[in-house]
User: What shape does this take?
Amino acid sequence: MNSSFIRFGLCSLLLLFPAMNRAMAEHPVPNILKGTAFSNPEEITKQSEEWLQQPIRYQARDQGVDVALLLDQNIYPGLLPLVENFAKENNIKVSVREGTCGPAAEGVMRKEVDIGGSCCPAAKIDRPPGLQWHTVGISPMAILVNGSDPVDRLTSEQVRDIFRGKLTRWSQIPKVGNKFSEELLIRPITRLHCKTRPGHWRLILDNEELFGPRINEVGTILDMVISVARNRGSLGYLENWKILNDPKYKDSVIIINIDGYAPNDANAVASGHYPFYWVYNVSTWTSPNTQNPKAQQLVSYLMDHADRIDPALNLVPSTELRKHGWKFKDDELVGEP
Assistant: This one.
């Protein structure tokens, strides 16, 4: 090959590298292990004309109330006292049901309630015409280990590598491994709920296909805590701080720091330095045949008084998130800082 041609080609590549570096800086390659934190709020799911015209139809137990709510089990403990305070102060009747994200979303889509509540950011399927989302705040998702294991911190990369099966023994982890026998396997425990919605456990790994073959999947929040508590070498995660704060699990389960930050450090969560969290989201109706002014007032009350939620639940209100550069569309949290 002609040497002048080779020199020309090398020079061209050298000239190209700065441009490539600038492009990568402006558009960094996304971390393909971490999933999307939020969906696009502009993507609305189409519904039939019959559905659009349908009013709210309360279930039998909700007949005669002014506002009916169906809240996910994770946000229920934090919001219930505020809901009851609002009802008492305004002399109205409310009905508050507790469920999981799936049934809560289904109840909203069936137009059985005025307010729905979820611990997951809304997916496209959760955005029908006339439904508006409001974010009360976020709460850290705790990473758990067995109470007898000498682990108090990991990096987010190590957490991801454990759940995807790249790290299989505690002895493989720097600054931790020398405290374990070489034979002790890591026992990753998962609860892969709400797979179609962004955020929550998908901030660790985007989808179930990325998790390794050795995961131990459980079905409920309580099963997660009990499984970690009973098995040395376990690693799990949990959203529900009501259970985590239960004295019966104080010594059997340890909440560890991630990337040098504690999950109950409000500033670390608000600034985005603590990487795993879940969302207090509530929804209201805006179309003429579904909107309920008292429901709108109640949601405004929840957002205005989020700082009164039990501190033990580690909620960071939306007012604090805005100060730290989190992105909102109206009342809904839609992007990280």
Notes: The longest strand covers residues 131-140.
